[in-house]
Write a structure and sequence with these properties.
Blueprint lengths: L3 E7 L3 H12 L4 E4 L11 E2 L1 H9 L16 E2 L5 E2 L3 H8 L8 E3 L2 E6 L2 E4 L4 H6 L5 H16 L18 H7 L4 H11 L13 H17 L5 E4 L5 H12 L3 E3 L6 E4 L5 E6 L2 E10 L8 E14 L12 E5 L1 H4 L5 E7 L10 E8 L5 H4 L1 H4 L7 E12 L3 H4 L1 E3 L10 H15 L13 H6 L1
Parallel strand pairs: 1-2, 1-13, 2-10, 7-15, 13-19
Antiparallel strand pairs: 3-4, 5-9, 6-9, 7-8, 11-12, 12-13, 14-17, 14-18, 15-16, 16-17
Length: about 450
């Protein structure tokens, strides 16, 4: 261990593993350590016995739920947008060769007490029961504008400069109702709150186009894909990648401590009486708790079921977004469902998550609107965890700390944090111009 590295990464959470892989591919000498004896950190994947032990103590799970090893329950479940930035990262690093993807069956939104398919283009807008007849026509015109918009074709701009006008200005031009704006902003463009309405309109147009392009990619009912056997495969795939490029992995290294020089700059990591030197340290918040602040909490319910979420067209895998206004809350709620068709549970079993930014100390009460949509559940576990963000100056201490995972059930915000960290660590932009078809083979086979 007494060697010098360009970067030492602490923790094998998804963000840390992605960064470790990206930096290794860049030719940096990387040492990756974890105090745990398993991959994944907060974003690990548990079998049924591990899940039981974590939330119910020592008792054994009932045999009626099926074999423990057939469960792969992701603790931070997130779907990937088929044409999104994360899939580009997977292709850029060639990690796709270690993973098999399958398209996700459905993408839904909650509106006035019911679940609806998210309409993503002009044709679906006209069919959608989400809107009345006149609203459908207005929405169709808006979708056509977004679909036809091209940066380099001024004719498609219809005289609007999307970098200057706000999303609110653009949407008001089409006279859309609040409920329509709600599902477009939160379930299509995947914004967490309504502050986007006062930002330049270019961003919402790009996000809506990404959704539609991703949806068209596999012609399934959603724009999302998910790895077979769940996200637990991802950290290991990046670990393999790092090893191919000469990175070193060390699990089960207790008491990993970052060592600083007299000026407060990180110079290495000590564990079990040994020290590895480095120029930079990358880690999650748990390794440098004095350099982060608590910014919120995530409440979640983890459910094992014997049926799909009702009103989702029998989708074996699905996301349902419950926009904050529909619930009278400050933050959206998310339903995530996956099943034996993605090999995350035994045949006939489904795993569902209900997650949101906690606004109280009672997850059971707070998550009820989402849980009520699930129908009968075989088992339910409640959990609440703190969310942290870094407060340090990385230029001064050479420490690069990832923010905790938010409650959303898609990857878009997670990968933005990774790319921003990459830029800070390396001082350069990550080149993500890749051939997207490289990730389609496995997903399209199904």
């Amino acid at each position: 261990m007494d060697e010098e590295y360009d970067v030492i990464v602490l923790g094998t959470g998804l963000k840390e593993c992605i960064l470790s892989g990206l930096l290794s591919v860049d030719g940096l000498k990387v040492l990756h350590m974890d105090r745990n004896d398993y991959y994944g950190g907060e974003s690990t994947s548990l079998n049924l016995k591990q899940l039981w032990k974590r939330f119910k103590g020592e008792e054994d799970p009932p045999e009626s739920l099926g074999a423990s090893k057939e469960f792969n329950v992701d603790m931070i479940p997130k779907f990937m947008m088929a044409n999104g930035v994360f899939v580009r990262v997977l292709i850029h690093t060639d990690v796709t060769k270690y993973l098999n993807f399958k398209a996700v069956d459905g993408s839904f939104v909650y509106n006035k007490g019911k679940i609806y398919k998210v309409p993503s283009n002009d044709v679906e807008a006209l069919k959608s029961p989400l809107m009345g007849l006149f609203e459908k026509r207005r929405a169709r015109k808006f979708f056509i504008y977004v679909q036809d918009y091209e940066d380099n074709d001024p004719k498609s701009h219809e005289g609007l400069d999307l970098n200057k006008i706000t999303a609110r200005d653009l949407i008001s031009k089409y006279g859309l109702e609040d409920d329509t704006i709600d599902f477009i902003g939160h379930a299509l463009a995947l914004y967490f709150d309504d502050s986007y309405l006062d930002q330049p309109a270019m961003e919402i147009v790009k996000r809506m186009k990404l959704y539609a392009e991703s949806l068209a990619r596999f012609e399934s009912g959603s724009p999302y894909i998910y790895p077979m056997y769940g996200l637990g495969e991802l950290p290991q795939a990046f670990a393999r990648l790092s090893a191919v490029y000469g990175g070193t992995y060390m699990l089960n290294k207790p008491d990993c401590k970052v060592v600083f020089d007299d000026d407060g700059k990180a110079i290495g990591v000590a564990s079990e009486g040994e020290m590895a030197k480095c120029k930079k340290v990358v880690c999650d918040a748990s390794y440098l708790s004095d350099k982060v602040k608590k910014v919120g909490r995530v409440a979640r319910a983890i459910c094992i079921m014997s049926h799909p979420i009702p009103d989702t067209n029998d989708s074996h895998s699905a996301q349902v977004i419950l926009p904050q206004k529909q619930l009278g809350r400050k933050s959206d709620m998310y339903l995530f469902c996956c099943s034996y068709t993605h090999n995350v549970a035994p045949k006939g079993k489904y795993i569902a998550f209900v997650t949101t930014e906690a606004e109280t100390d009672q997850p059971e009460v707070e998550l009820k609107p989402g849980i009520d949509l699930l129908g009968p559940v075989d088992e339910i576990f409640f959990d609440i965890y703190d969310r942290y963000e870094p407060t340090n100056d990385h230029a001064a201490d050479s420490c690069f700390i990832s923010a905790s995972y938010d409650p959303s059930t898609h990857f878009e915000s997670t990968v933005i944090d990774v790319i921003e960290m990459y830029k800070k660590i390396t001082g350069k932009e990550l080149n993500l111009s890749v051939d997207l078809s490289a990730a389609s083979a496995a997903a399209a086979e199904e």
